[in-house]
Design brief:
Blueprint lengths: L7 H13 L2 H8 L3 H15 L4 E2 L6 E2 L1 H24 L9 E6 L7 H12 L4 E6 L2 H9 L5 E5 L8 E10 L1 E5 L5 H4 L3 E3 L4 H12 L8 E3 L2 H9 L5 E3 L1 H6 L7 E5 L6 E9 L5 H25 L8 E2 L2
Helix pairs in contact: 1-2, 1-3, 1-4, 2-3, 4-11
């Protein structure tokens, strides 16, 4: 039996406060007034019989009890969001076939969940789901071998293609742990030039007139993160990429990118003749999955990403 006073809204408010340390920011995230945020926190602490935050410090800091409770609260909220996604699965039974391509940024958690949810909806359909690099996905879409693709936006305008933005994914700097001047003392580990993310990063560096020696060019994202973790250099990636490299998090430091607050947009693309309810519903499912599986955990780990890494409307 859930104790009296322990509410879902209270958990959401506490998670937002823990992430930001600010009543004002928590109010903005939850859509409540600042007095309501404070009242929700007091109600939660009363129900639990302990202080979750140090009320005498600004920004707010979690108490030991608060840190322990946060891990449980995040698990509960993540499971509830997944349950919501599963309950709002669309009925795709009328389709005879559906083929979707995704970038490999989601291979760890999101792609398996998406495949399961879609397969449950496609009761009488042929279903194909593949992962490819962004540029290859656009070729498959143009050749009409895929109905939809989820990819980083290349900056090009594609004739006959409709875009449904999903996530704003900012660029970040990833360095070995506790290195004082990594961009000065260590080499830049680049993505392979053939990759879209490499072209986007190099473009931002060029606009800021930032030049680094060309020594390493790596085509595998996890290999790139492993090299940073071993102290062989530093890299520019995105939160979606960083969250795939969980095994290395203990030996990596993460900072804003050195060329300002820029990033990439992850979108769902489909051909004009296929636009409509189905891609809209798939995009909605993708946004919910991305928020629960990637964005919320990333912001909890790196609170300064709040407002930068976000679901697109």
């Amino acid at each position: 039996m859930v104790m009296k006073g322990l509410t879902l809204r209270g958990l959401e408010v506490f998670e937002a406060l823990a992430r930001t340390g600010s009543v004002a920011q928590a109010a903005e995230i939850t859509g409540l007034s600042q007095p309501s945020v404070s009242q929700q926190l007091r109600n939660l602490e009363k129900a639990l019989g302990t202080d979750l935050v140090d009320h005498g410090r600004r920004p707010m800091r979690l108490t030991q009890a608060g840190r322990s409770f946060l891990a449980r609260a995040e698990t509960v909220l993540a499971e509830l969001q997944m349950a919501q996604s599963e309950l709002t699965v669309m009925d795709l039974g009328h389709l005879t076939t559906l083929s979707i391509g995704l970038i490999d940024d989601f291979d760890n958690d999101l792609t398996p969940r998406l495949a399961t949810l879609l397969a449950d909806s496609l009761t009488r359909s042929k279903f194909k789901l593949i992962t490819l690099p962004s540029l290859d996905l656009f070729e498959e879409l143009e050749a009409q071998r895929l109905h939809m693709v989820v990819s980083a936006h290349s900056g090009e305008v594609f004739e006959g293609v409709v875009e449904y933005p999903l996530v704003q994914d900012p660029f970040i700097l990833v360095t070995p742990k506790a290195i004082e001047n990594p961009t000065r003392d260590l080499p830049f580990l680049r993505y392979a030039r053939e990759q879209l993310i490499s072209r986007q990063i190099e473009g931002h560096l060029a606009r800021q007139q930032l030049e680094f020696e060309e020594r390493f060019e790596i085509g595998s994202h996890l290999a790139l993160m492993a090299m940073v973790a071993r102290g062989l250099g530093w890299a520019i990636t995105t939160p979606l990429g960083y969250m795939r490299a969980t095994r290395f998090h203990d030996v990596l430091d993460v900072h804003p990118a050195p060329f300002g607050d820029h990033g990439r947009t992850i979108s769902l693309f489909t051909r004009t003749d296929l636009a409509g309810q189905v891609p809209q519903e798939v995009a909605g499912m993708m946004r919910r999955l991305m928020k629960s599986q990637i964005i919320d955990p990333a912001i909890t780990k790196l609170p300064w990403l709040s407002g930068r890494l976000k679901v697109s409307d």
